[in-house]
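Practice problem: predict the structure.
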Amino acid sequence: MALQPPALSLQIATTVHHRIHTATVRMDSVGWVVSGTKHLVTPGGGHRYPSGRVFVLPRGAQWEIVNDPAPQGRYVARLLCFAPGLVEQFHRQFGQFAAVPPVQGCAGLAADAAFEDSYMRAVAALESEASSQALREHRALEVLLMLAEAGIVFAPPGELGWAERVRRLIGPSPQADWTLERIAGAFATSASTLQRRLAQEGETVSQCLRDVRLETGLLLLQSSALQVSEIAARCGYESHSRFSAAFRERFGFPPSQLRP
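Answer:
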């Protein structure tokens, strides 16, 4: 079985101003705005992160997100998303930060030279096929340590709920023919038991599948040059139009907006 990566390295880039309705953060994440401006918006106010600023988003947070290419003309942000196992490892290894209150909602700080150096070492290790798992973990932990020394820590991960387990199962292959029975079988449980466990969390298999497919589509639109039709297929949609309609309903704008 392949080792699970301790973190994911992503780059979001666009020349189009867009506003994402109610985005849910699935993994503890640290982003560095390279150019343009990110806005996190709630009914009670917002937070602005121009180029050179770092934004920190804990898992489970929900925001309306505005990615604005101004003033440089292109929005670019590097993003590190940390697996729960790595966050748990951080808390085991660095118990001196147990008294630091975990970040709620969001946090930010300036990307000084030391942070940029650590961040880019982590990016290089995570994106290189030649890097060992140990080196990837070490580099990602270094970023978490630098954040902790600045007073920013993520909460220790608790036991995963069933909806999150289902999303993690679907995530690597959103285009697959996922049925209730197939998913239940993967967890060695019955379809009725899985439905009951998800219902206790206010979720269904179809909701989890839709979340994964549309969130994967959003990521591909922001981080690749793929055509909308190819993204729709990779996310398990049989038609461009069905994907576009579902995407617009979920995020508030059509996928074609990010393909000027």
